[in-house]
Amino acid sequence: MVSVVNDKYISRRKALGTAAKVALGVVGAAIVGGAAYMAYQQTAVPRKVKLEFTVWNYSVETIRDNIRKFMQQYPDIEVTLYDFNWPDYPSTMVQRFTTKTPTDVCYNGEDWLAQWAEAGWVVPLQDYWDKYVTKKKFNEYVNDMVPFAKESMTYKGKIYGLPYYSDMFTFMYNDKLLKDNGIEVPNTWEDVLDASLKLKEKGIRYPYVLQFQATNPFDFYAVFSGAMGRGARLFDENLNPIFESEDHPFYEHLQWMVDGLHKYKIVNPDYLATHETDAAKKMGAGEGAFTVLAKYMLAAMNAPGSSPNAGNFRLALMPGKTHEAYGFAKMYNMTRMCVDRGDAAIQAAITFIEYFGASDSPVLKRWAVEKGLGFGFLSPYNDPDIAKSLVEYYGPGADKSIKEQASIAKTIPHPVWFGQWIDYSIKEAIAKAFAKEITVKEAVERMAKRARELRG
Question: At residue 24, does pLDDT exceed 50?
């Protein structure tokens, strides 16, 4: 097992020993969090190595600052950042890969991993990690991963990255609004309906706020995660669709949504114009009491001064018999282009990914403490600063309730054709069912038929 230092191959043990000696000179380095990183300095990069890093445009200034801190600690690695609009990110990356635009490390997600891996654009991180100088062996990180995060980053038995962030689509409610009206936190979707009808009588016009612009996978998961609380799955082990019967939890949940829109009128009819940020604003303005959104939106809703109801929002287990929710992970991925550049580039990329994506990474801690983002490991729940931030962002008891939901959250298979299937499903099936242009039965039949066509 070898690593590269000063253009020569040396043993891993010797390289790590050299790193430990250099670390003595950088113990006072000023970085955010991650005490272990204060005493760790990577020395395996032989000369100035440039890395091209691509992300979508969430909190880009924070990313730039994290890169600046990284380059202060690793002056032999120069990182250039490219950021792209979130809705355009997958297609932009496909174009970069096919035109061989230099890209070494990238954000990747469970929705695109199969496509990118199958095309050979990205590589399994686990195949390279232990061949280079690292702070921890790869399995030490794997053993600490939240199960759904690990599965989200796995394709054909290989793990492709370390988590950038990991999250769930969770059930959120206005705690004060429920208490003021003597309503218990719902345990089932029937409870959500009953509570919504009571609130409607109290003047809350549309108690359930739905995000569904029918433009991206998050719109699908905002609906499907609710169905997972009922125990829904979409495919069997051979990727045959299994959701067409009227007693299937996914079918039942779609029907609940349609009835909520048209029969009971408890769901906002402007859902097609409701982005996740709009849903948060509606909740903050007191227009709704319940919603299912990516968990990080709860942190935004509770941010001091963000709305008259800031601080009133809580997370509960997903309503339903199983209380499961959809969990996912976005990851730091190394590209085939990086590998083709040779050992120096690979070492630099792995050093960069470990700094950004390790379980005790200063970047992970910063995202959690400053932005309320979720993480794909179990050990950060034990960090007192992170535990405190969870309560501050998500409300009393959130450090326990989030961990409980994460322990039973699940992901689902994402075959190469999954992105095409979701795009078709939200636009040509679910959106049309919500508008009552077709029935729920017709919608699930369309979705099942399309899945069979794509699967081949």
Answer: no
